[in-house]
Automatic annotation (TrEMBL):
One of its GO terms (biological process) is phosphate ion transmembrane transport. One of its GO terms (cellular component) is membrane. Keywords: ATP-binding, Nucleotide-binding, Translocase, Transport. The lineage of its organism: Bacteria, Bacillati, Actinomycetota, Actinomycetes, Streptosporangiales. This is Phosphate import ATP-binding protein PstB. Pfam families: ABC_tran. The keyword Transferase does not apply. GO terms for molecular function: ATP binding; ATP hydrolysis activity; phosphate transmembrane transporter activity. Residues 29-268 form the ABC transporter domain.
């Protein structure tokens, strides 16, 4: 890597989207024949997809189908799990993300992560944002770095007068936006979000969804969500996963269908996709 050592319900989908264009024209990630193992267990089997530059890609599907496992492959978070390994290829701008020369720490700087539950550090709001830039040796005025990140995360106006307060004093929705600000403070290219709204109320969820659409002007975003309406509202493309059960009773996550979000929700090509979207299973 360069420089890295019944009928389908009516939904409103994000646009514009060209019909029939299932492959990203300007891919940030190209995934080929990806399988993920935990020891001998194959958790995810033979995934192929591409993630477009400055698009929002949603991953949907029932629990245990491998969505989060695939998401964590994009910044090599699975490396931290003993016995986990990935087979196949994930190319990041054409370079093998799992190549011997690639530094996983640099990968995680370029590809940020926001988790299901807000996890601010037990520090001030200011220090939460400044932590990453300080570790990375960011030059320049830290006050400007902090303000820019909080502004991008649509949080600056709410916290600018209490930057020295403990971040844990913020509401759940504010904490999640703080975590997004913390992720973008180190200037990543990609933001991964693993069910970022599952612990939030509807008002906070709406703010996060609005924020995602604003951030997609500058960042590539991949989101795992159980909320199909959320996927329909915010994403350009949607990947539907399910889990097959083999003759040993083991579940293996599989990608069933990947397409523009409008087509997935209004005219899917696979019956399993339609069954999930219409609530017949899952």
């Amino acid at each position: 890597m360069t420089d890295i050592g019944t009928s389908i319900p009516s939904v409103t989908v994000r646009g514009p989207q060209a019909p029939g264009n299932t492959a990203a024209l300007d891919p940030v990630f190209t995934v080929s024949d990806l399988s993920v193992f935990y020891g001998e267990y194959e958790a995810v089997r033979q995934v192929d997809l591409s993630i477009g530059n400055r698009e929002i890609t949603a991953m949907i599907g029932p629990s245990g189908c491998g969505k989060s496992t695939v998401l964590r492959c994009f910044n090599r978070m699975n490396d931290l799990i003993p016995g986990a390994r990935a087979a196949g290829k994930i190319l990041y701008h054409g370079e093998d993300l799992y190549g011997d020369h690639v530094d996983p720490i640099e990968v995680r700087r370029r590809i940020g992560m926001v988790f299901q539950k807000p996890n601010p550090f037990p520090k001030s709001i200011y220090d939460n944002i400044a932590y990453g830039p300080r570790v990375n040796g960011t030059k320049g005025k830290m006050d400007e770095v902090v303000e820019e990140a909080l502004t991008q995360a649509a949080l600056w106006d709410e916290v600018k007068d209490k930057l020295k307060q403990n971040a844990l004093s913020l509401s759940g929705g504010q904490q999640q936006r703080l975590c997004i600000a913390r992720a973008i403070a180190v200037k990543p290219e990609v933001i991964l979000m693993d069910e970022p709204c599952s612990a939030l109320d509807p008002i906070a969820t709406t703010k996060i969804e609005d924020l995602m659409q604003q951030l997609a002007r500058d960042y590539t975003i991949v989101i795992v969500t159980h909320n199909m309406q959320q996927a329909a509202r915010v994403s350009n493309r949607t990947a539907f996963f399910t889990a097959d059960v083999d003759d040993k009773g083991e579940r293996h996550g599989r990608l069933v269908e990947f397409d523009e979000t409008s087509r997935i929700f209004t005219n899917p090509t696979d019956q399993r996709t339609e069954d999930y979207i219409t609530g017949r299973f899952g």
